[in-house]
Amino acid sequence: MNHIQTRSTGDGALLRRYEYDDAWIVAADLGVDDEDVSVDTVGETAIVVVEGPEEPVESEFDLPGTAASAAVNNGVITVEGER
């Protein structure tokens, strides 16, 4: 398993990427309530929308491949795919 950890600039979420022989996982800890977050994937891009007090904030991040699933649990986004 390879583990790659990055932090986006500014106040961005901590991203972690785990690569296995047959799969990969990208996780981001947003620290917000699940009902305030939505995640969608298009090709090799994850689109995250966080509902803020004033207006929604949208972010995108590149994935190492096409996603098979995406979920939010306890403020942590998890996107998984196959190699």
Describe this structure in words.
The chain is mainly β and 83 residues long. The chain starts with a strand and ends with a strand. It is built from no helices and 8 strands. The chain is elongated and about 40 Å long. The protein has strands spanning 2-7, 14-19, 23-29, 37-42, 45-50, 57-62, 67-73, 76-82. It has a 5-stranded antiparallel sheet with strand order 1-2-3-8-7, with no helix packed on it. Pfam families: DUF7127.
Task: Set down the secondary structure blueprint.
Layout: E1 2-7, E2 14-19, E3 23-29, E4 37-42, E5 45-50, E6 57-62, E7 67-73, E8 76-82
Antiparallel strand pairs: 1-2, 2-3, 3-8, 4-5, 5-6, 7-8
Give a quick summary of the entry:
The chain is mainly β. It has strands at 2-7, 14-19, 23-29, 37-42, 45-50, 57-62, 67-73, 76-82.
Q: What is the spatial order of strands in the main beta sheet?
A: 1-2-3-8-7
Distance between the termini: 13 Å
Q: Number of helical runs?
A: 0
Percentage of residues in strands: over 45%
- Give the % helix: under 10%
Q: How many individual β-strands?
A: 8
Gyration radius over CA: 12 Å
Q: Please state the average pLDDT score.
A: 88
Number of discrete domains: 1
The CATH architecture assignment turns out to be Sandwich
Q: Regarding CATH, which class?
A: Mainly Beta
Organism: Halorubrum sodomense
Protein name: Hsp20/alpha crystallin family protein
Pfam families: DUF7127 (PF23444)
